[in-house]
Amino acid sequence: MKKILLVDDETFFLQVLNRALQSPSTEVKTVETGKAALQEVAATPYHLCFLDICLPDLDGTEVLKRIAEISPKTKVIMMTAGDVTDNMQQVIEKYAYMFLTKPFDLIQLRLLTKSIPEEAAT
């Protein structure tokens, strides 16, 4: 079963993504803070993580770096509706699997998640 972690401080957005990505072969977990995301990744191997850059407690790029340390096989897709600084862009290019600008097409998102191999995330 493919495990996906969704990290965003917008509850409605998390609900929409959760519904879009749920399937019999996918387990989806949602959290609203960077600290919660780090706890999840430390406790459970995830295949894929959708991570917002703007979080209420930690900078998303810092969370990205820490996820790469904790669970290097977890593919992290960074998301934002805001501006990206040069420093953020460098971190994203180094550590993220992909970068998406909100809003994005949910059908393409489903296809993307299906294309990620279900190799062990640990």
Structure commentary:
The chain has a single domain, classed as Rossmann fold (3-Layer(aba) Sandwich). 43% of the residues lie in helices and 22% in strands. It has 5 helices and 5 strands, in the order βαβαβαβαβα. It has helices at residues 11-21, 34-43, 60-70, 86-95, 106-115; strands at residues 2-7, 26-31, 48-52, 75-80, 98-101. It has a 5-stranded parallel beta sheet with strand order 2-1-3-4-5, sandwiched between helices. It is globular and about 40 Å long. The chain starts with a strand and ends in a 7-residue tail after the last helix.
Average pLDDT, rounded to a whole number, is 92
**Strand order within the widest beta sheet:** 2-1-3-4-5
Alpha-carbon distance between the termini? 14 Å
Low-confidence stretches: none
The CATH architecture name reads: 3-Layer(aba) Sandwich
The major beta sheet can be summarized as: 5 strands, parallel
Could you give me the name of the CATH homologous superfamily? Response regulator
The beta-strand count equals 5
Query: What structural class do helix, strand and pairing data support?
Result: alpha/beta
Q: Specify Rg, calculated over alpha carbons.
A: 13 Å
Features:
122 residues; alpha/beta; Rossmann fold
In short:
The protein is an alpha/beta fold and 122 residues long.
Q: Secondary-structure blueprint of this entry?
A:
Layout: E1 2-7, H1 11-21, E2 26-31, H2 34-43, E3 48-52, H3 60-70, E4 75-80, H4 86-95, E5 98-101, H5 106-115
Helix pairs in contact: 2-3, 3-4
